[in-house]
Amino acid sequence: MAATAATAAQATPTTAAPSPPQHKSVRTTGFLADQSRHPRGAASTSRAPASGATPRLLAAPQTTAPQAAAAQPLPEMQTVCPSGQMFGRTYGSQSFEAGVDPLSNGWDVASGGTAADGVKWATSTVTASETTADHYLYGLDAPIPTSGRVYAYFAYRTNATGDNAVVWFGNTGFSLQPAASWSYAIFDVTSEVASYPGHMFVDFDQTGLGITTDQTYEVDDVAVYSCVPIPNAGVRGDWTGEGTVDLLGIHSNGNLYLYPGLGNGRTGSGQIIGTGWNTFTWTGSPGDVTGDRRTDLVSRTADGTLRLYAGLGDGAFAGARQIGTGWQGFTALATPGDMDLDGRPDLLARDGGGALQLYRFTATGGLQKVRQVGTGWSGMSWIIGMGDLNGDRRGDVVAVSRRDGCLYAYTTTAAVGLTSGRKVGCAWGGMNWLTSPGDLTGDKLSDLVARAANGDLYMYPGRPGGGTGSGIKVGTGWSSMASIL
């Protein structure tokens, strides 16, 4: 990762919420669709059902007491997403700890037993004499994106039969099978996203149609969420979790752009995923700092504060967490990978005297100084972390000399020092930005990306030992980017 970046004033960037990634469809439900009634009023012309809207079921609810492993309040994340996906972000959730929506009818809060989540849940009972009863529960109004796949799950138990226990997603209802113990129903509700753009309503309805005995319907732990691809471990620079290295660009106006990698050294079109990122004096990607198999970002403010932005695996980031102060005195920062083989990425920092200091990321995401690994580095215009250059699994670096414009490779020793530089190429002085986002070409070697003075962007495929192949022009008009990583 490049060692320098444009200087700007302090501010905390915001991250936009891109649509969840697409994935293939799953099998259709065996539940009975029932659109004859709706607690929010399906007959309203402003809430007409979407044409052909039918949710898809990922996993049918259990009709008998669940096994011990499945009786947890929240299923394992893999069970709420299709194969190859993992839980992404929650758009909305409800466990009725504060009561039920006051506009609901016939529903109340129960406690004193075992809830699926928390200590309370919503409950409704229709007696045998209430054959015309219609108890409805406004469960959840979750703000959602208008595109991308959306999922919902909830826990329920009921002795109701027929169409007397119904769940509604937008304008589509499903009758539930009886379940004596808490059971989870998990749905792909993407087809209902268009019902009320920007919202996903999850509601519950109990009636007394033809009943001869009292029937109870209980609900808890309702959630609407997204799934994302399971990240590939060790793929530095993979911001989307798709297994290919992507490019990030910080525009001079502060917009953060994501350019998804295509796996052949090129990228797709850029999309804005954040704003305010020109307020940092340096931003880099050390790799997976938090241990969740997702690539993370670290940024430095003008006052020397280091902030960690944990990657979410879908092109977005968690909120900032401060991990250090006093870093304004360093004239260059670089992210080489794991130099000391402790299983976590490291950070190189050049101080005002030209000495190169090594810091390791700790298990809690902080930084700990390891040792000084070099002196005389003031003569380098670029210091770039390249990952492992010689197959020993240790992170290595390359640097461009101000004196001759040549590129030198430095590999890490077993004593966690750096070897003498080996010249691996020249004529790099004409490039005004250099970075190594990772392996863009899929050949297991990190590549270099360089920007020429006219704004053209070139990709140089990595070679064993730190050299590169011939440059390939992969973009134009990149002069407006204050930082590329």
TrEMBL record:
Signal as UniProt keyword: yes
SUPFAM superfamilies linked: Integrin alpha N-terminal domain
Any Pfam family: FG-GAP_3
This protein's name: VCBS repeat-containing protein
Compositionally skewed regions (Low complexity) per UniProt: 1-17
InterPro entries: FG-GAP (IPR013517), Integrin_alpha_N (IPR028994)
Keyword Phosphoprotein: no
Organism: Pedococcus badiiscoriae
